[in-house]
Amino acid sequence: MRYLVPLLWSVLCWSPAAAEPLTFADAVAQAATRADLQAGDAGVRAHRALARQLSGQTGHPSVIIYPGWRFGPSDSERFELQAQATHEWNIAGLSTARRDALKAEGDVLQAALQDQAMGARLTAARAWIDRWAAQARLEAVEAAHAQAVRFAALVEQAVSAGAVTADALAEARAEAAEAQLAVVDAEGNLVDAGHALARAVGEPTGVALAVAGELPTPALPDAASLTDLSARAAALPSATRQRLAALAAEARAVEVRAAAGTRMQLGAMLQVDDGVVGFGTVGFTWAAFDHGERDRAGARAEAQRARGAAERATRLAAHQLNQALHEVEHARENEAALDDGLLPALTALVDVRDRAFAAGQVTVFDVLRARARLAAGRRARVAARANRAWAEVTAWTLLAAAAPQEESL
Asked: How many alpha carbons lie under 13 Å from residue 213 in its C-beta half-sphere?
């Protein structure tokens, strides 16, 4: 028993070791190694391996043996044997149709994996930026809390000196308490963002992750230099996947039609009695009635549906790309407005109010309002920086997926 209590206490107090902070590049790279993506890649490789083993023959050889016994007359009783070997060929193009359909199916699997991988990279990028922003917001509210505490102490001294009334001290202390609540809330958001990042990159330990380094700054081409965005959008994985799915459905319909086509059989037959007699055999199975309409109906319907989905995916991809480029411009303008306009003005306002308060020219409430506006502006700047980084990463990822030979991060 004396060992049990320390053991239980150590179990209750145990917590997993923190993982190493991730840079943005490491997070995106780690997302590509997630278990679901690895399984998808293994599936594509398994499909390709079996596709390479596909035989050009669509039929199997057949051997039939007829052992027999001749009954009478008595002097003619003896063992007799007939044997027949045949092989069947589909002469409606089934061999080629099977290879085409299998290749189209593999192309769809590969495109789906690429689409899933791009989604995983974007999810990891968003989660990393959100974790960075959560850390920056925590630092901002901690700084605001420290300032609020110092200001409350200053007001308390002013109350003791009879320079301000007690309600001003109560207001300053309330501001400090609200700032403390903001710190607690930001700490919770930081942990949540760390767990979201861990899920996005497939962290196996279940611990929240931290980030290292600054926000990504991908090199984007000038918007004016980007031409034919519709063609670029059509090359995005989401649009490519649907387009290949339509081709695969068409190939499947062709395969079904060929499978129901005319077949030819060639073979040889031997008969053994008093001697050996050989025969050649030729046969045809005409596709006179059933042309595979039962299975072709589903394949044709799927092909029509897939063509519509491909057209919609291409249009959505064009909108996504155009909107991503617009978001870059908008986010940059918003960040610049904060950096060059609002924040310098609010910082100057707080400085003026602080000096005026020290000189007894303004009230505590004037100072608190100015400080609240500055704190809100600093939080807005954190969000603006994160939004700008996310917009740039999204646009870069889409452009790189549509034209991989271009810019690199």
From this structure: 13
